[in-house]
């Protein structure tokens, strides 16, 4: 199993939160202003990056024909204003017919009632009834932007939960980062254990890390 698949497997099996992943990334990686349409979903997977531009979703319809299964489809909207990139029809095509894990859009979505009724795993920058146009853009998409964003996002890892979306960059998909995630999970377990069972203050736990001085406790944790 490649390191990307091992990281995704660890994230999913342990339901590692976006909070923990962002902490492991040095408190970075969040997609700003992107929140879930439906609560309670957890998804992590390899990103397939697609785009819309010039208030047109023609490029999206074109690109989604060939997406592989089991990806998180990340849609970036360029010069689309407040128009929705797409709604229920395209979401169904991506999630059901192409068996994608989730949809993430940095722009808005439409058909909120349908998206909520189906309880689909979708994260976006808001909801609106006004969509992009089904027309071919007059100009070609900027090749430099396409190349830059494709190289940045295609093959990266998206982690999505009720807090939002965090992206693990491709340069961080390493053994070292997987070890960081293990340590982050262990730290969280220790912090809640010290709070719930040792009744320590959060100042002692988080700031002073007094548990590190408890040699018996730490030796026991290392054996678990």
TrEMBL record:
It comes from the Bacteria. This is RraA family protein. It comes from Ruminococcus turbiniformis.
């Amino acid at each position: 199993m490649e390191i990307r698949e091992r990281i995704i497997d660890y994230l999913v099996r342990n339901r590692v939160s976006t909070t923990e992943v962002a902490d492991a990334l040095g408190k970075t990686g969040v997609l700003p202003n992107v929140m879930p349409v439906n609560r309670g979903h957890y998804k992590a997977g390899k990103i397939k990056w697609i785009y819309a531009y010039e208030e047109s979703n023609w490029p999206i319809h074109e690109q989604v024909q060939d997406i592989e299964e089991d990806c998180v489809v990340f849609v970036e909207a360029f010069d689309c204003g407040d128009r929705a990139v797409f709604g229920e029809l395209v979401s169904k095509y991506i999630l059901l017919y192409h068996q994608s894990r989730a949809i993430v859009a940095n722009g808005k979505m439409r058909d909120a009632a349908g998206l909520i009724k189906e309880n689909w795993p979708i994260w976006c920058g808001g909801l609106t009834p006004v969509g992009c146009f089904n027309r071919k853009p007059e100009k070609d998409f900027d090749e430099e932007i396409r190349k830059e964003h494709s190289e940045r996002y295609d093959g990266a890892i998206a982690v999505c939960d009720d807090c939002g979306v965090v992206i693990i960059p491709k340069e961080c998909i390493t053994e070292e980062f997987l070890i960081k995630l293990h340590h982050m999970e262990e730290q969280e377990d220790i912090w809640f254990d010290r709070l719930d069972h040792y009744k320590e203050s959060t100042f002692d736990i988080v700031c002073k890390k007094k548990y590190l001085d408890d040699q018996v406790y730490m030796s026991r944790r290392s054996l678990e």
